[in-house]
Amino acid sequence: MKARYQFRFYPKDQQQKLLAQLFGCVRVVWNDALAICKQVEKLPSNNDLQKLVIAQGKKTIERQWLSDVSNIPLQQSVADLGIAYKNFFNSCKGKRKGKKIGSPKFKKKTNQQSARFRIGGFSIKGGKVYLAKIGNVSPIWSRDLPFAPSSVTVIKDCANRYFLSFVVEVEPVNIDAKNQSIGIDLGIKTFAVMSNGEKAQSPDYSKLDRKIRKLQKKLARQLKDSQRRNKTRIKIAKLHNRITDTRKDFLHKLSTKIISENEVIVLEDLNVSGMVKNRKLARAISLQGWREFRTLCEAKSQKFNRDFRVI
User: Fold this and answer.
1) 161 and 90, same structural domain?
2) What is the pLDDT of residues 160-203, one digit of tens each?
3) 179-186 and 262-267 beta bridge pairing
4) Both 188 and 162 in a single domain?
5) Contact status, residue 205 vs residue 250, Cβ threshold 8 Å
6) Do the beta carbons of residue 128 and residue 162 sit within 8 Å?
7) What's the whole-model pTM score?
8) Domain residues for 241?
9) Could you give the number of structural domains in the chain?
């Protein structure tokens, strides 16, 4: 099975400029390829799209700067668009689990930026990661990679933080379960109530959420594309990241504890998309991360060879 390992890093000033250029090229390639797909009745193949957008684009004055960055992330951007369309069509046909997803959208400069390198576009040596046409970067290694990664994605989030996300093939972990089975009910006031009587209380996000709502009102009154609006946007993004990081830490620890200690895990099936239609509860429900918790439990059940059920 595949697992992701994410580490933060701090690029130098020159590397930040090179990464900004790379992110811009990846975004332009995605948008150009998407524009072509929207104009035709039958989607072009991945190879044909790469030739149209990358190879031919480099020969034009408007896109000749695509040659200044590594070709690998550009090719991956086109490949990712193909996967996005495949997921969209499978979702429409009911072949994809979960709620239906929309068609691929154009990417904005203000959204999270990313670029993916395959083998040949990156290498790890002496604790440093070499990225093609970027140079060596030094991530903060909070843990070791169990095996050699097959790819690495460079991420810049909306709060201007940089991360390296490695994809690694890992083996299932064999740990004896303490208990035969457990049932879990999810809620708002108490995040999870277990059949053994244990309760899990989620962190209090209300203080940060109030700050976000206050700043969002301020943002709505500011002029578009102004420096003050951009500063407010970054402040909001940082607060969102604090909530996301806190919630992710809580959900990871809780899901690991439950999955590792129990042989059979039964989770309550909630219609989250229907529940968030209640305007009074929508924000509180969205902050809980029920779907994220379920996804983590599903992934860790494979890792620990557990029987995970949703009823």
Assistant:
1) yes
2) 999 999 999 988 888 889 999 999 999 988 999 999 999 999 99
3) parallel
4) no
5) no
6) no
7) 0.87
8) 179-310
9) 2
